[in-house]
Amino acid sequence: MKILTAEQLSEADKETMKIQDITSEELMERAATLVFKEIHKRLNGAPIPIKIFCGIGNNGGDGLVIARHLIQHDYQVKVYVVNYSDKRSDDFLANYEKLKEVTNNWPELIKEDTRFPEIGTGDFVIDAIFGIGLNRPVKGWTGDLVEHINDSGAFTLAIDMPSGLFTDQVPGEEAAVIEADYTLSFQNPKLVFYLPQTMDYSGELQILDIGLDKELLKSLDAQAFLIDKEEAAGMYHHRRSNTHKGDYGNVLIMGGSFGKIGSVLLTATAALRSGSGLCSLYIPGCGYNIVQTGLPEAMVLTDEDDKMLSAYPNNFDANVVCFGMGVGTEEKTKNALKELLENFSDPVVIDADGLNILSKDKELLDLLPENSILTPHPGELKRLIGEWEDDFEKLEMAKDFSEKYKVILVIKGAHTFTINGKSMYVNNSGNPGMSTAGSGDVLSGVITSFLGQGYEPVEAAVLGVFLHGLSGDIAASEFGLESLLAGDIAKNIGRAVKKLFERDAVEE
Ligand SMILES: NC(=O)C1=CN([C@@H]2O[C@H](COP(=O)(O)OP(=O)(O)OC[C@H]3O[C@@H](n4cnc5c(N)ncnc54)[C@H](O)[C@@H]3O)[C@@H](O)[C@H]2O)[C@@H](O)CC1
Ligand SMILES: [K+]
């Protein structure tokens, strides 16, 4: 799904009104009624006190529409109008009038010196104060109200955006932002829902299709692409019957050092579980027995050094090479990487200490084959591209880096971002159980495997990241978050692929 900016979305609202010949008020009615239905489906008439905080713009207008429907369905509703300005949007006013027709319980006006209403932990709060129209940080008494809602402990549902959250910048340290438990957002996801600095504000997320014109949305340039099952399934290459192992890649994994041989074992297991036809490892001598015993399906070549990598096996005929897990950053090992980059001209996958070696000697970056895939976690990324002020700057710096060196960056995190020049892909699978040793080694194996099977490098990265996350989800459902091991992620890749093509009961 496309991630769009606030400007694109409000423009799409306007264009849709013209194309569908509807008024802004009608579009608001449609959008907010969908929100009401979601609430009604879950509350099912429960007598929970509902407190709706409405701004004076169209986000507030949505709040008024939701209030009207809830009142008509006999819910206990109290509406507050947050008077951060004396202006009112037309659709707010129209819906304010309509609300009067269904209740005598007038909305209460909250102004600068008003005492804020009490909010109990058992209340249900609807945040319709600011949406995508936010244009400055929320401070002053409105900020105090936002803090008051956050401190209440009540379940908070944000409409379109948690109030105070911008779509295109971080809120800033002194600004107040609603910490929602759940966000129902209109039409398309917004980038801030997925950035480490801002993702916590939206809580659980659901995107509601409010029926903006499909052709118009298709024509818009995405700020980024959100990758879910549907997108991943579209990238997957089905196997043909008349094939043999030579059709599925011959990958070489260079990694490990004394005490860290397990890392390569995980990477190789993941590569084979992801479908590699042939998988070889190039490791220090000390790992020979471990790998041969642990993974009989893999072939093993050893470096002349017993404890670390010191060379690249130039005579080995692989179609993809992955370098870096568990290698350390010794000078000898740097030479091994240098030899690889000087002798191998197809895309490579570089992870972990391989990235740290590149960061220490930036001249090596110029040797990277075009479309190579680098898989840093945030610490490794910092060493590679430098410090950033905030997540938006990080993404800009990452795009510049990707363009400059013609490489693909896979920035690992709760939502892994894959950056290919100006294009960004945001992963939407995975869980916190995957924050465990070796999880990254597995990811490198999956991506390397797909690259070896002939996927376009960016697809190998994006699909690999998604399946890695989905496999982690399958493993977590079996073992629980705490018990999940990286090896479980590798083992479940096949199930994840199967799941790509299953229809979920909840989706039907
Ligand atoms: N037809 C439409 O345009 C639709 C709009 N929708 C809703 O409309 C929202 C956008 O509405 P608006 O553009 O009216 O904007 P908002 O309702 O988000 O904000 C209201 C106004 O507050 C002012 N403001 C911004 N930041 C402020 C601050 N920090 N302190 C004080 N005032 C501030 C701005 O002038 C802004 O226009 C969406 O998020 C969505 O909820 C939906 O109803 C769908 C249809
Ligand atoms: K809101």
From TrEMBL:
Residue intervals of the YjeF N-terminal domain: 9-218
Reactions that this protein is recorded to catalyse: (6S)-NADPHX + ADP = AMP + phosphate + NADPH + H(+); (6R)-NADPHX = (6S)-NADPHX; (6R)-NADHX = (6S)-NADHX; (6S)-NADHX + ADP = AMP + phosphate + NADH + H(+)
Residue ranges of the TM segments: none
Binding residue positions for AMP: K412, G413, A414, H415, T416, G440
Cofactor binding notes: Binds 1 potassium ion per subunit.
InterPro entries linked to this entry: Carbohydrate_kinase_pred_CS, CARKD, Nnr, Ribokinase-like, YjeF_N_dom, YjeF_N_dom_sf
Gene Ontology terms, MF aspect: ADP-dependent NAD(P)H-hydrate dehydratase activity; ATP binding; metal ion binding; NAD(P)HX epimerase activity
Keyword NADP: yes
GO biological process, one term: metabolite repair
Binding site for K(+): N59, D127, S163
Sorted UniProt keywords: ATP-binding, Isomerase, Lyase, Metal-binding, Multifunctional enzyme, NAD, NADP, Nucleotide-binding, Potassium
Purpose: Catalyzes the dehydration of the S-form of NAD(P)HX at the expense of ADP, which is converted to AMP. Together with NAD(P)HX epimerase, which catalyzes the epimerization of the S- and R-forms, the enzyme allows the repair of both epimers of NAD(P)HX, a damaged form of NAD(P)H that is a result of enzymatic or heat-dependent hydration. Catalyzes the epimerization of the S- and R-forms of NAD(P)HX, a damaged form of NAD(P)H that is a result of enzymatic or heat-dependent hydration. This is a prerequisite for the S-specific NAD(P)H-hydrate dehydratase to allow the repair of both epimers of NAD(P)HX.
Protein name: Bifunctional NAD(P)H-hydrate repair enzyme
Species whose genome carries this gene: Christiangramia aestuarii
